[in-house]
TrEMBL record:
Superkingdom to which the source organism belongs: Bacteria
Catalytic activity of the protein: Preferential cleavage: (Ac)2-L-Lys-D-Ala-|-D-Ala. Also transpeptidation of peptidyl-alanyl moieties that are N-acyl substituents of D-alanine
Domain (Penicillin-binding protein transpeptidase): residue spans on this chain: 257-551
UniProt-recorded name of the protein: Peptidoglycan D,D-transpeptidase FtsI
Location in the cell: Membrane
Residue ranges of domain Penicillin-binding protein dimerisation in the record: 64-215
Cross-referenced Pfam families: PBP_dimer, Transpeptidase
């Protein structure tokens, strides 16, 4: 069918095309008219906002800072928070000669030497710079005073500043962010992907001086970072910090570290290192002060591993519980010699740990096949990172048994030839504290431990715990680790430090690891004091007293019921 037309006839399908094109052109025209109308409104009609003393204004897009997630302790107490601040920057090319007199009050407000400020601005202007920060992250009240001066070319930027309420108490654990709010150390760095938010964008109206005078619309909402809830208990963190600091000062030590674990699930309740630093004030501090020694430093644990040797031999049936071991002060193993501090004669297993006999534990270790012995150490976590997600976390070392010589197995039994962090060592003790089950350790709060695994039989772990209670007796090596009213089990370590020329004869690590209440352990505390210099260096004299004070405080804070009724009776009878 054809339609009559002055130009002849047109097919119907061509008519449809013409109509559609006209509709499309009309829609495009309407859209353009809308944009023109919006521009007319912004540039002419809305004079209240677009004109200021005759200066034309313009529309721009600016970034919107995102709020960084908080870090909280297990009870919801804030450990790291972000507060809004202002930063001031200048475009030197826009500074007007007529406003030079305003630089004097601005310099005074900012605490900036005026001569230095003018010199900086001239230098950057001569270099044709368009952006120079004057002050970052200052109090908003100060920024408002500068803003009131109305200096052309001076701009203001809203940012966030990180603040740490506990200061030095949690400094090594939390780390800090840089001035751009990016994590640099510790938890802040390790969990940057969770804490950091995503900046947004908004369209604004700026006056002739570049100041934002009105928000027009949000283009993209800022997405705040997620909060992080740690296993840390701020109360125990403070207690551990105070006592470790005292131990370091009293012993004039080089450094020290301490960890408190929940014996039932591997939660890290406190972790502190000395010397400390305050993340709120990092001026003139070296990177060495930032190092979280409890997480990243490894050392040879010495005699603190001896309970694992006894447990492994008992569990594998390589020795009997009532075994008696001959020691005579010196033990020859091939061309090598193992020595004890004293000649302890014939010893049962309890006295092996109570007196910390190298000779006896060497004989116990040599009764086990190398592969089995190595397997126990490996499953206890030696030579493997504890996996808490802390940057630079120590792995330690454990030589594969296939590369062992005979004496390697001997020295491993009294804690040399293997290295560990204080966190890894504390974790290994969960296998004794929780009746043979070793727990993974965590810094993030969780409902349960998904990676718990059995290392020893329950009866083996309980038997070794009972032996370790004798270490805390007057006849043992750690009498100063006792806690009145509670049964305590633990082990000392006094380790010669290794250097380029071998082991030192006058530099030691003083170590103690213990648990309480020994009948059903609630907490494990491990402490190492590096190079005490006041004359005492045994773990039982340097590290054990700090353990006692922190453990007593933790048991009190958590209201743990006493299990040492005999001790309680003696205590009450003295009052």
């Amino acid at each position: 069918m054809r339609i009559a037309s002055g130009a002849g006839t047109i097919p119907r399908h061509n008519t449809d095309f013409v109509i559609r094109r006209r509709v499309l052109l009309s829609a495009m025209l309407l859209a353009m008219l809308g944009l023109v109308a919006r521009a007319v409104y912004l540039q002419i009609l809305d004079k209240e906002f677009l004109q200021d003393k005759g200066d034309m204004q313009h529309v721009g897009v600016v970034s919107v800072s995102a709020y960084r997630g908080q870090i909280k302790d297990r009870n919801g107490e804030p450990l790291a928070i972000s507060t809004p601040v202002q930063s001031i920057w200048v475009n030197p090319r826009q500074l007007r000669d007529a406003e030079q007199d305003k630089l004097t009050p601005m310099a005074k407000i900012l605490g900036f030497p005026e001569k230095e400020l003018r010199s900086l601005l001239k230098k950057e202007k001569d270099a044709n710079k368009r952006f120079v920060y004057l002050r970052r992250q200052i109090n908003p009240d100060i920024a408002e005073k500068v803003k009131a001066l109305e200096i052309t070319g001076v701009y203001f930027e809203r940012e966030f500043k990180r603040y740490y309420p506990a200061g030095a108490v949690s400094g090594h654990l939390l780390g800090f962010t840089n001035i751009d709010d990016i994590g640099q150390e510790g938890i802040e760095h390790g969990y940057e992907h969770i804490l950091r938010g995503q900046p947004g964008k908004k369209r604004v109206i700026k006056d002739g001086k570049g100041q934002i005078i009105k928000d027009v619309e949000n283009i993209e909402e800022a997405i705040p970072g997620r909060d992080l809830v740690l296993t840390i208990d701020e109360r125990l963190q403070y207690l551990a910090y105070r006592e470790l600091q005292n131990a370091m000062i009293q012993n004039k030590a080089h450094s020290a570290s301490l960890v408190v674990l929940d014996a039932k699930n591997g939660d890290v309740l406190a972790t502190v290192s000395q010397p400390a630093f305050n993340p709120n004030n990092r001026k003139e501090l070296s990177s060495n002060r930032y190092r979280n020694r409890a997480m990243v430093d490894s050392f040879e644990p010495g005699s603190t591993v001896k309970p694992f040797v006894v447990a492994a031999a008992l569990d594998g049936g390589y020795i009997k519980p009532n075994v008696l071991i001959e020691t005579h002060g010196v033990y020859h193993l091939g061309r090598n010699v193992v020595k004890d501090v004293h000649n302890y004669g014939t010893m049962d297993l309890t006295h092996v740990l109570q007196k910390s006999s190298n000779i006896a534990v060497t004989q116990i270790a040599m009764s086990m096949p190398p592969e089995y012995f190595w397997g126990v150490y490996s499953r206890l976590g030696f030579g493997t990172s504890a996996g808490v997600g802390f940057p630079g976390e120590a792995i330690g070392s454990l030589l594969d048994y296939q590369g062992w010589h005979e004496f390697d197995q001997a020295i491993l039994s009294f804690g040399y030839g293997v290295s560990t962090s204080i966190l890894q060592l504390a974790r290994a003790y969960t296998a004794l504290a929780d009746d043979g089950i070793i727990h993974s350790v965590t810094l993030l709060k969780r409902d349960e431990d998904p990676d718990a695994q059995r290392i020893f039989k329950p009866e083996t772990a309980r038997k070794v715990r009972e032996m370790l209670e004798h270490v805390i007796s007057k006849e043992g090596t750690a009498y100063q680790a006792r806690v009145e009213g509670y049964r305590v089990a633990g082990k000392t370590g006094t380790v010669k430090k290794a250097g380029a020329g071998g082991y030192s004869e006058d530099k030691y690590l003083s170590v103690f690891v213990g648990m309480a209440p020994a009948s059903n352990p609630r907490f494990i505390i491990a402490i190492v004091v590096d190079e005490p210099t006041t004359g005492q260096y045994y773990g039982g004299l340097v590290a054990a007293p700090a353990f006692s004070k922190v453990m007593a405080g933790a048991l009190r804070v958590y209201g743990v019921e006493p299990d040492g009724m005999d001790n309680m009776h003696l205590l009450l009878s003295k009052q």
